[in-house]
Design brief:
The longest helix has 19 residues. The two termini are 28 Å apart. By secondary structure, the chain is an alpha/beta fold. It has 2 domains: 59 residues, DNA polymerase, domain 1 (Orthogonal Bundle); 280 residues, TIM Barrel, CATH 3.20.20. 46% of the residues are buried. It is globular.
Length: 353
């Protein structure tokens, strides 16, 4: 039986250099390969034309590069572009390019599906199949960066890991992907442009703090009431709000970074002024800002978008408490906008070859 080739983008630079030395190749060839992978986004070893042919052959016999393929693209009238990416094993994940006048944001995924089962989330209806590798996370960014240039004529200014999956349950691969985005040996992006969004995995937040990461942290809070949070986010049962608060405080103390709280406004569930009061109290734990998010329906009818008047009242209450608060308007409502919908739909259709 032929030996299965290893995914070279799961290796660190020092491991690629060691492979070169073990195979009678000069060590600097490893650095060249690494640059091709992470700075030039090579999809094949044949592209690496500053390597001698025998070096490319040695690498291609031992390793594989598994680039993403575009399975489906939807473009909204507001310019939002949602892409379903097909993985080498047939899995599907989503990435979104969200444009504005002078910039664009990439929203990328970290897992194939998700096992957290948040009731408002389309991805929560998908089973967790596996974690994405660092190359698969990185590839989404490369494609969306090109989409921003071609369709919006703007640079990609922000990257959020807010797509399918929980990033902190794929910790190693997510951190490796981010490091290759910000490294000078990679894309050389500023870590200040990158935000990792978590549902509140305490151990992961503590680990980020201990590593003194330079990128931003967002916590998908959605309610500051434990009973309500248990109902919509089962992760809260093992990561309750009081313990989560301590982890967030620890992260701030270690990194000095302001936290972002994401709050999805759901009609008659978490959008009252009493809910706003609880949120304001919770936010006192650290310097923070709050993003109020308009709900994109997932098709099951469980929740509805909060009315405009209630959204404005919620916003005004927080602002009256001298909080930094923004309303994130719903984007891509005329396409499969909610995260996970396009993967659900694409998975039920025949994937175009």
């Amino acid at each position: 039986m032929e030996k299965e080739k290893a995914d070279i983008r799961k290796l660190a630079l020092k491991e690629i250099v060691s492979f070169c030395e073990e195979n009678s190749l000069k060590s600097f060839r490893g650095k060249q390969v690494y640059e091709w992978l992470w700075k030039r986004s090579a999809k094949t070893f044949d592209e690496m034309n500053n390597l001698p042919k025998n070096a490319r052959q040695i690498f291609s016999t031992q390793f594989v590069i598994n680039p993403l393929q575009i399975s489906n693209i939807q473009k909204s009238k507001d310019g939002t572009i949602k892409t379903a990416f097909k993985l080498f094993d047939g899995g599907l994940v989503e990435g979104v390019m969200i444009p504005s006048e002078k910039r664009a944001t990439a929203c990328i995924s970290s897992q194939v599906g998700c096992n957290l089962a948040c009731t408002f989330c389309a991805t929560g209806k998908l089973k967790l199949l596996r974690n994405l590798g660092p190359g698969e996370i990185y590839d989404q960014l490369v494609v969306i960066k090109q989409q921003a240039k071609e369709h919006n004529n703007t640079p990609l200014s922000n990257i959020v890991l807010m797509g399918m999956g929980e990033p902190l349950l794929n910790y190693k691969n997510v951190l490796q992907a981010i490091n290759n985005m910000i490294s000078e040996k990679g894309l050389g992006l500023s870590p200040r442009r990158i935000t990792l969004s978590t549902s509140g995995v305490i151990k992961g937040i503590m680990k980020l703090a201990d590593e003194n990461v330079k990128f931003n942290l967002a916590v998908s809070l959605h309610t500051a009431d434990n009973d309500k949070r248990n109902r919509i986010m089962p992760v809260n049962k093992t990561n309750p709000l009081d313990k989560l608060a301590k982890a967030i405080q620890y992260f701030h103390e270690k990194t000095g970074k302001r936290i972002t709280f994401e709050y999805l406004l759901l009609k008659d569930f978490n959008d009252s002024l009493a809910d706003a009061q609880k949120l304001a109290e919770y936010c006192k734990i650290v310097p923070c800002k709050v993003n109020l998010i308009e709900f994109n329906a997932t098709g099951d009818g469980l929740f509805k978008k909060s009315p405009k008047l209630k959204t404005e009242a919620f916003y005004n209450f927080l602002e009256s408490k001298n909080m930094v608060v923004n309303i994130r308007s719903s984007r891509g409502e005329d396409i499969d906008a909610a995260c996970g919908q396009l993967a659900n739909r694409a998975g039920s259709e025949k994937v175009k070859k």
